[in-house]
Design brief:
about 240 residues, mainly alpha, single chain, about 65% helix
Length: about 240
């Protein structure tokens, strides 16, 4: 028996119109913006996470049904469910593969930065940790903003394991991307490389920092000293 109607009813009962209005502005839902047309119930993230904890019997079909909701928070709840289901399947590589395939087949619904950032490294990144990663590089060349962000966000798992090659390769692919949300995610992941190995980040920056969008560079050097940040921003390295 599907849990979807019960979950939807519970979430809608907790809707808050004031929060919904704020979220519509925060997630840029006006025409021409990256979240254009998205709808919100007005729910905070802790409510969604508590819902996932409450319904531990939810399966992948439940999650995918929720993922197709018109409401942003329901889709976010769906990716939280997918992460939880993936983690519970750690002893079954075949089941994890099915979850990853479902994730990749439904990227059109993983369509805002919070949905991507809550799931890409925890599902796709973890799954590919001991596998070839050409899937990510294909996503990095996508015309879809969110697939490109997924490709970079997924490398966060590799970074924490001291594996930087894919982060650098995808960063090069996205270096000239026009979207601010790509500038931010690339800069963020380069900064995370630096948190693990500053020399590795600096080696990449020396080759590319003069061509980087300003936002990307600022994110990448955020943890550097004031003197280092000034030198990079003035092109003096």
């Amino acid at each position: 028996m599907t849990l979807v109607p019960t979950v939807l009813q519970q979430l809608k009962q907790k809707a808050d119109s004031d929060i919904a209005q704020h979220s519509q502005r925060f997630f840029k839902t006006d025409e021409g913006e990256y979240g254009a047309g998205d709808k919100f119930l007005g729910l905070r993230v802790p409510i969604l996470r508590q819902t996932v904890k409450q319904y531990k019997k939810a399966n992948l079909d439940d999650a995918l049904a929720l993922l197709k909701s018109e409401y942003h928070e329901v889709r976010l709840c769906a990716v939280f469910f997918m992460v939880a289901i993936f983690e519970r399947a750690r002893s079954s590589p075949q089941e994890q593969r099915i979850i990853v395939e479902a994730y990749l087949a439904n990227t059109q619904y993983i369509n805002n930065w919070d949905l991507v950032d809550s799931s890409a490294h925890k599902i796709l990144g973890k799954y590919l940790l001991d596998k070839e990663r050409e899937t990510l590089h294909k996503l990095s060349h996508s015309n879809n903003l969110w697939e490109k962000r997924i490709s970079m966000m997924a490398t966060y798992t590799f970074i924490k394991e001291q594996q930087f090659e894919d982060t650098f390769r995808i960063a090069k692919t996205l270096l000239n991307d026009s979207h601010d949300l790509i500038h931010k995610i690339v800069g963020w992941m380069l900064r995370e490389v630096g948190n693990q190995n500053k020399e590795a980040e600096e080696a990449f920056l020396l080759l590319h920092y003069k061509k980087m969008p300003r936002t990307m560079l600022r994110y990448a050097i955020e943890k550097f000293s004031k003197e280092e940040r000034t030198a990079y921003l003035k092109g003096l390295i």
